[in-house]
Amino acid sequence: MSFIVVMGVSGCGKTTVGSELARRLGFHFCDADDFHSEENKQKMANGVPLTDDDRLPWLQTLSQLPFRHEKLVLACSALKQQYRRILAEHSPSHLFVFLDVPGEELKRRLCTRQGHYFKVNMLDSQLATLERPHGNDLKYVIVDCSHKGVGDVVNAIVEALEFQKQ
């Protein structure tokens, strides 16, 4: 795999897990949050959920990142299957890693997070939008992150990558 998308709703640990996974694999790391327009950041900060139209230019920009980085881990919500298809459009060697975290744990994490434009009141909107990877979705693995530290989650992803090679 040369393009790994660590995905899930806000608070699931995408940035923390993704940056550690990239370090471990020797890949470049990007956080999709850094590519949102100021307008989108302001909407989210004001509690306004993003629409598909809001997300499309952002997703198109993100889909170009594998051209700039040969080996890339991207932390990105990728909430819907159609979003994941856009992200994988130019990268045949991809894997989506869904970080599965119970709702109460997500709320706890978001309540303690500081300095981020995404607030806990937006979580319900993301959970309603989320289409869990399943069936014939693109290449994916689901990692249960309940009561696991970052190291354990990254180990599970590395094991899944090894299995994918077989």
Automatic annotation (TrEMBL):
Keyword 4Fe-4S belongs to the record: no
Q: In which pathway does it act?
A: Carbohydrate acid metabolism; D-gluconate degradation
A single Pfam family it belongs to is SKI
InterPro entries with a match to the protein in the record: P-loop_NTPase, Shikimate/glucono_kinase, Therm_gnt_kin
One term of GO molecular function: gluconokinase activity
Domain of life where this protein originates: Eukaryota
Q: According to the UniProt entry, what is the EC number of this protein? A: 2.7.1.12
Q: Which reaction does it catalyse?
A: D-gluconate + ATP = 6-phospho-D-gluconate + ADP + H(+)
GO terms classed as biological process: carbohydrate metabolic process
Question: What general EC class does the enzyme of this chain belong to?
Answer: transferase
Q: Which SUPFAM superfamilies match?
A: P-loop containing nucleoside triphosphate hydrolases
The GO cellular component terms are: cytoplasm
Name the NCBIfam families for this protein: therm_gnt_kin (TIGR01313)
Family indicated by similarity: Belongs to the gluconokinase GntK/GntV family.
Name of the protein this chain belongs to: Gluconokinase
Q: Which organism is it from?
A: Steinernema hermaphroditum
